[in-house]
Design the sequence.
């Protein structure tokens, strides 16, 4: 099982490369439309998805419950789809979401700005002035989305296994290059380790869903790290009773055999004597 994640600049042929790669590899594509359908199944309205999808949120929006909910269910959708089989993830924070998966291959696709502008003119059917605004806004939003939602600096090439400049190749050549590297890098051992890690990620998300969205336990910065059937809970709680409720909800999730709490109690201090 392999996961190929593609981070792309607007006008760099990222989507076209993903389509060509799917043809030669047989992998399914997890792109915007695919993920939107999954998120709609979780109850996310289209206007909320449009507001958050690969957008850099403002200060208050970055702290909102909508952001936390979106990030949780986005990761849930990505993990549950990936565990079903080989896939190509186009944007959507996939490079960061799958960073711990040994069978992930992370690709960065770019092109010189002037070439991207010419492509944007054709794509948007507009003049170059407007195309420049579209490209600059896209770069701002996609870079901010990865940074704020996932802590990923998409300009740090050490994050990626491969960087491609499509000024020097077309989409089919780029796809063939990615597929060739995938054949060399993602061997049987990494595929096996990847399947195990993905199963752990899926279980961790299901535990978090049980605690926060089904049992309605109020925690801050909850993380459920699974290793086989063992789960460790991290986060902040106001009371010990809240911690106990979280542990009980985690234990009730199918597949969980052991739960350990590393949840910290947040001490509340008053400025008044």
Sequence:
């Amino acid at each position: 099982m392999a996961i190929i994640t593609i981070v792309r600049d607007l006008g760099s042929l990222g989507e076209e490369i993903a389509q060509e790669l799917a043809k030669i590899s047989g992998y399914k594509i997890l792109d915007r439309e695919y993920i939107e359908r999954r998120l709609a199944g979780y109850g996310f309205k289209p206007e909320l998805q449009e507001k958050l999808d690969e957008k850099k949120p403002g200060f208050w929006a970055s702290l909102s419950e909508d952001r936390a909910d979106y990030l949780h269910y986005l990761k849930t959708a990505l993990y549950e789809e990936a565990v079903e089989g080989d896939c190509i993830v186009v944007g959507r924070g996939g490079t960061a979401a799958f960073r711990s998966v040994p069978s992930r291959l992370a690709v960065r696709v770019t092109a010189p700005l002037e070439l991207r502008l010419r492509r944007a003119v054709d794509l948007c059917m507009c003049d170059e002035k407007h195309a420049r605004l579209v490209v600059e806004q896209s770069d701002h939003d996609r870079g901010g989305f990865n940074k704020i939602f996932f802590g990923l600096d998409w300009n740090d090439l050490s994050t990626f296994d491969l960087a491609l400049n499509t000024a020097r190749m077309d989409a089919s050549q780029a796809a063939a290059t990615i597929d060739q590297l995938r054949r060399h890098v993602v061997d049987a051992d990494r595929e096996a380790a990847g399947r195990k890690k993905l199963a752990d990620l899926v279980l961790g998300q299901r535990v978090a869903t049980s605690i926060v969205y089904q049992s309605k336990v109020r925690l801050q910065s909850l993380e459920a790290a699974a290793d086989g059937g063992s789960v460790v809970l991290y986060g902040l709680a106001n009371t010990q009773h809240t911690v106990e409720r979280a542990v009980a909800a985690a234990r009730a999730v199918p597949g969980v055999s052991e739960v350990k709490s590393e949840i910290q109690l947040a001490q509340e201090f008053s400025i008044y004597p």
